[in-house]
Amino acid sequence: MNTLHSNPCATLRPIVAISSDRIERHGHPAHAALHGYVRATSEIAQALPLVLPALADGLDVDTLAASIDGIVLTGSPSNVSPQRYGSPSPHREMLLDIHRDAAILPLLPALVAAGVPLLAVCRGFQEVNVAWGGTLEPAVHEQSGRLDHREGDHDRPIERWYDDSHDIHLVEGGLLARLAGATRTQVNSLHHQGIERLGAGLRIEATAPDGLVEAFSIADAPQFTLAVQWHPEMRVDDSPFARAIFEAFGDACRARQQQRRRAFA
């Protein structure tokens, strides 16, 4: 018996949009998302991942909010343009993606207001902070009293880049502390930029030993909203904490899916 035709809703997965980078492929403009985010969304969150294009002229937020059950904001080699948060022009060596900035930043407040669950990683973490009026420090390692949060030796195999690099303190009673079942754990945080000023309405979930904000949620959002500076998508095979993040996100997306079905009916 064909289950899909006998009960169309029984086997449908929640739909999760995944942000992409604007890149060049063989001389052609292209849109790309790393496989780790796609795999973790599909296998651990148990959702259908769909990659969002990084369109410089923007995306239709009303159509998107009515169509998706969650959004994942990915990490990237590129940085949010400093002009987006009122800082001086970037150093010429800073890799930017102005197409992604234009596509993603305007979407976020409207999607969160519409109740869409959000999981933001690394660059995505920084995008949410900027979208809520925060600012970024472009070179954390150059600041007095800060750890060097960069990825280290590039000659190592890429998998080793994502080994745990330092402890974080999880705020007692917060979302992450509940998922971890503890107030301290280790993460694979690797980044050049970091939060300088936290955006208004963002609630700290975790900090590094040097005090740098490593995770936050959106205080007035009733749905799952979590932004982390580290890379749980790269550790879902060997880290229960990383798996728990994507599992909780998937649960929130299924709840959103049920709400959309009821509204449609």
UniProtKB/TrEMBL annotation:
<dbReference type="InterPro" id="IPR029062">
    <property type="entry name" value="Class_I_gatase-like"/>
</dbReference>
<keyword id="KW-0378">Hydrolase</keyword>
<dbReference type="InterPro" id="IPR044668">
    <property type="entry name" value="PuuD-like"/>
</dbReference>
<dbReference type="GO" id="GO:0016787">
    <property type="term" value="F:hydrolase activity"/>
</dbReference>
<dbReference type="InterPro" id="IPR011697">
    <property type="entry name" value="Peptidase_C26"/>
</dbReference>
<protein>
    <submittedName>
        <fullName>Gamma-glutamyl-gamma-aminobutyrate hydrolase family protein</fullName>
    </submittedName>
</protein>
<dbReference type="Pfam" id="PF07722">
    <property type="entry name" value="Peptidase_C26"/>
</dbReference>
